[in-house]
Amino acid sequence: MQSFSLESIEEKLKKVKLLVIGDCILDRYFVGEVNRISPEAPVPIFELKEIYFSLGGAANVAANLRGLNVKVELMGIIGKDEHGKILKDLAQKAGIGIKGILEDNFRPTTIKTRVIAHSQQLLRIDKEERKPINKSLKKKFQEIYEEILPEVDGVILSDYAKGMFLSESFCAWLIGEARRRGKFLMVDPKSVEWKKYEGATSITPNLKEFKETAFKENLPQDKLEESAKILVERYNLDFLVVTLGKDGIFSYHPEEGAFYSPSQAKEVYDVSGAGDTVIASLGAFYAVGLSLKQILELANIAAGIVVGKVGTKPVYWEEIKAFIKENSIAGGRK
């Protein structure tokens, strides 16, 4: 790892403020045990021991930024229901700004319920409604966005394809406004239609999403560097980042070329939310002015830590510092 000062990064992170806008999700966990099979049908009997909630989707990106000591505002939709109240309460308790969280009377709060036994996920149950946001909400979001944008260093769009960015014109407007005001904007995509992300600082698909986009764009799916170079040029990006799971992270920058950062994961219990950790880390460390290689290496460490946790949980700066010191990574000097 390139040389950097952990103390310097820590101080700079505290001065950063970012805006996360996207699809807010409430994650619910049923935790228990399975010790026998039902006599009624050949299915396991799950004995419930605990129920808890955590922030998911764009809200988890915001939680990860708070874990890195970054100030953050969150914009997104919740339903006018009990789950929406829980999501807002969790965000407030995490120190996340919530003036951009709006209620939609015509859709429920998106909730993912995971059934966990012995640290293994047995089942996931989703309740959601995927449709574009209505004109009234879109106008409110635009007003809040224009109010918050001057206060922040950059923007992260967290697209989970639940409705926030189904309108291509709205997505393009968000990017255009950010860049016009000199703010960086990074996108965690779900769509293969990258036209609506055009002009972003960076797009950060996982390998599956990248291959789907390459296929749609008639580009080779197995030639990462070649296709990445074309996509960066085609959609006017500063650089492209592709998460590779167990193989780490790949990036392509027009001036710096291709770069692979190997995975730092020691144990993998749960990959849910790992993409949120990566985009949050990229945004935070980009904002403090590190080089792209340093950013990717730190993001890889953060991802390696978070996949060792069960459930959707943020990573914390103290955990990253401890990892660097414990593993004697060359750059981790005080």
Report what the structure shows.
Mean pLDDT is 91; it is low at 330-334. It contains ten helices and 15 strands. With 334 residues, the protein is an alpha/beta fold. The strands form three sheets. A nine-stranded mixed β-sheet has the order 6-5-2-9-10-11-12-13-14, with helices on both faces. α2 crosses α8 (274-287), α8 runs antiparallel to α9 and α9 (292-306) packs across α10. A hairpin with a 5-residue loop joins β12 and β13 (249-253). It has a single domain, classed as Ribokinase (UDP-N-acetylmuramoyl-L-alanine:D-glutamate ligase, 3-Layer(aba) Sandwich), CATH 3.40.1190. The two termini are 14 Å apart. The longest helix is centred in the C-terminal third of the chain and has 15 residues, at 292-306. The chain has helices at residues 6-15, 58-67, 82-93, 135-148, 168-180, 207-216, 224-234, 274-287, 292-306, 317-326; strands at 4-5, 17-22, 24-37, 44-57, 71-79, 97-104, 111-117, 120-127, 154-158, 184-188, 202-203, 239-243, 249-253, 257-261, 332-333.
